[in-house]
Recover the amino acids of this structure.
């Protein structure tokens, strides 16, 4: 059996697969808000950050790992796991001092991970992907590289606020002593991998590309970008390696405490989106994945790397080889939840609004669907912008608001993914909101393509389990054919006669109007 672990924004999950029978043996998830309330992070991050700052408490991820493994051990005999790999929310960074490696080697099963490792954090909190506070640092890095185009050419993305390089630069500027004390900057993925392996683990080419520090073509740290980011940074960066490549045997702590075999291997972790590309069986170019998690992301395998002329999309390493493109929308489930709560609805209202009680095009009632800062496009906005009937603009008629939000989200997605140049024949939908048929129908209608879903909603953890099997010597593609089949009755076809061409043009003009009104 093989274990995949995914540490996403709001939860940490484990999935165990059995490659002999092609079945998913066990799943276990720990929700950061509900299961670990003592960390004061109802949505997985620390509320109340000023000026666009969004940080999480890295101890939360350690506590969740202990909690998840203890629960999983009740469901399955962990001594049968031959390899573990995993994924983490992308871009988030963990700063550790020189004691981290020693502490990993000396982990005692009697105490927990938080008690033994928290003392090695040289930065108490971790900036995560939702952070938009590093505009200045992005401009400084771009200037040092003679322009953002050069940053994009080398790293696959222009300098982006949430990416790790600008976040590291801000830390160096604000807390030079803390930066000095930092001996290694890990990503969430490589941090958790290090804990499992009991030694510093590498960063993979998928997650590494989300840092503005890696040269995408050379698959190495880019000296120019690293020097433009912060002094003495090169020695603080982990090695780079392919996702799933072996790091070593699992640390004794996990053998004694949870019953893993001492021969269980740990494979290099990746980011949650590259892992999801694996778990959806979409590493080979030709299909598109839309993940509706805390953020909404649109991604696909690519034969060759080409970049987004608008500067919002990214190119990462693909764990299956070659490249993948990705566009991330910050107001995903966060906006859907905000609207749901504002109107005291439940998710079935999202189903009803789009399936039965409103019609495609929403009678011209249009919404810029942003309840907080957005990154695609970059907008500093706190409330959605509504245009349509007086009642709609006043915020009345909840079901029209729901459709307005959903249509706005996917029209915005369609517009900002046109640069990829893929003809969308089939959409694979994943993430927490993908089980909602109403949402899936609007995705199918806006993109004019059928939507399919896998039996398992957590494609990142499944992808991580497939990577664990790769660590153990299996080939990726046969595993994908085995595990990544659409669930029976999961397909939703576009509604005959519905065409969103006009609505898209209308949405884009509303967006342009809003942006010019903001100067
Ligand atoms: P992440 O991986 O970012 O932690 P998930 O992929 O687990 O997030 O998705 C969690 C989100 O899915 C929740 O925050 C919730 O908003 C959304 N969600 C869960 N069930 C439904 C549903 N039936 N309809 C719409 N959204 C849902
Ligand atoms: C991708 C991104 C998010 C995070 C959290 O660039 O910022 O999708 O990976 O899921």
């Amino acid at each position: 059996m093989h274990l995949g672990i995914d540490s996403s924004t709001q939860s940490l999950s484990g999935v165990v697969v059995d490659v002999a029978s092609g079945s998913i043996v066990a799943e276990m998830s720990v929700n950061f808000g509900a299961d670990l309330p003592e960390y004061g992070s109802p949505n997985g991050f620390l509320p109340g950050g000023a000026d666009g700052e969004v940080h999480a408490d890295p101890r939360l991820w350690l506590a969740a790992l202990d909690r998840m493994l203890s629960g999983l051990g009740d469901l399955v005999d962990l001594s049968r796991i031959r390899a573990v790999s995993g994924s983490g929310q992308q871009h988030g960074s963990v700063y550790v001092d020189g004691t981290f490696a020693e502490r990993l080697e000396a982990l005692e099963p009697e105490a927990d991970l938080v008690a033994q490792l928290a003392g090695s954090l040289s930065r108490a909190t971790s900036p995560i992907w939702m952070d938009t506070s590093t505009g200045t640092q992005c401009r400084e890095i771009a200037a040092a590289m003679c322009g953002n185009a050069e940053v994009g050419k080398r790293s696959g993305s222009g300098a982006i606020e949430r990416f790790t390089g600008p976040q590291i630069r801000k830390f160096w500027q604000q807390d030079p002593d803390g930066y000095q004390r930092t001996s290694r900057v890990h990503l969430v993925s490589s941090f958790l991998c290090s804990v499992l392996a009991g030694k510093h683990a590498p960063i993979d080419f998928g997650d590494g590309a989300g840092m503005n520090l890696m040269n995408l073509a050379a698959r190495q740290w880019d000296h120019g970008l690293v020097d433009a980011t912060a002094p003495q940074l090169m020695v603080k960066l982990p090695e780079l390696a392919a996702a799933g490549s072996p790091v070593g045997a699992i640390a004794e702590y996990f053998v004694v405490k949870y019953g893993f075999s001492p021969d269980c291997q740990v494979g290099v972790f990746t980011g949650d989106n590259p892992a999801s590309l694996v778990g959806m069986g979409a590493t080979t170019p030709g299909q598109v994945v839309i993940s509706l998690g805390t953020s909404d992301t649109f991604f696909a395998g690519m034969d060759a790397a080409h970049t987004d002329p608008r500067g919002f999309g990214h190119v990462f390493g693909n764990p299956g080889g070659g490249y993948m493109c990705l566009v991330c929308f910050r107001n995903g489930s966060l906006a859907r939840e905000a609207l749901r709560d504002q109107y005291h609805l439940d998710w079935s209202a999202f189903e009803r609004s789009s399936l039965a009680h409103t019609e495609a095009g929403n009678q011209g009632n249009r919404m810029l669907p942003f309840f907080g800062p957005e990154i695609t496009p970059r907008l500093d906005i706190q409330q959605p912008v509504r245009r349509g009937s007086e009642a709609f603009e006043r915020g009345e008629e909840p079901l029209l608001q729901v459709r307005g939000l959903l249509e706005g989200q996917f029209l915005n997605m369609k517009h900002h993914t046109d640069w990829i140049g893929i003809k969308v024949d089939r959409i694979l939908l994943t993430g927490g909101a993908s089980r909602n048929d109403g949402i899936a129908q609007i995705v199918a209608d806006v993109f004019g393509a059928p939507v399919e879903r896998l039996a398992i909603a957590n494609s990142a953890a499944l992808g991580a389990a497939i990577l664990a099997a790769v660590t153990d010597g299996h080939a990726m593609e046969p595993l994908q054919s085995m595990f990544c089949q659409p669930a029976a009755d999961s397909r939703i076809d576009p509604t005959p006669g519905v065409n969103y061409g006009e609505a898209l043009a209308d949405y884009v003009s509303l967006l342009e109007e809003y942006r010019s009104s903001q100067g």
User: Anything to note?
Assistant: The pocket of D-xylulose (ligand 2) is lined by residues 8-9, 89-91, 129, 162, 210, 271-273, 293, 295, 297, 326, 328 (CB under 6 Å). The longest strand covers residues 23-31. The chain has a mean pLDDT of 96.
